[in-house]
Amino acid sequence: MEHAGPVKGKVRMEVGAHGAVTYLVDMLPAQLPPVRARDLERAWYAARAAAIAEHWGILRGFRFRRPDGSFAELALADRDACCWAGAVDQVAGLSSLHGMSLCLRLLALVDLLGRAAWAAPLCRLDPDGADLHPALLRAAAAAPLTDEARFDETGFQRSLAALPVAPPPAPPPGVHA
Fold first, then answer.
1. Domain for residue 62, yes or no?
2. Which of 4, 27, 65, 151 has its CA 20 to 30 A from that of 53?
């Protein structure tokens, strides 16, 4: 999705009685701005570190305002997703459109990697996590999200195909991939 200029909108946060947080977003995920690949990479490694440290975070939910005034809702019930969202909140803040876009892109990328066998060569699994190919990060940073906060697999593949993709870097000597 191309954006002609800065995306205007707000993210408000409500804290529930048991500490759960709900983010009220003035737009649908598909309207959120692209992010920089380096910001997405930083979020990826922050999420990886939080998961290794078992910082599971709090329950989080999202309410996205549709153009007709109704809402689309998304709840993170999975502890890994809550962990990753918490890590993004620490590095970028989920109360901004940039932080929200970064978080949803990270979650959408993890979702895509879990269901798209064609992406496996762009992700190297290690005992302490996974390393992502820079082209995969660039595509995830720029590809539009759907209104359901996912990546359209066909569109994502098309945007990835437009990027130069060199083979992923080899693991350091002594490390088996």
1. yes
2. 151
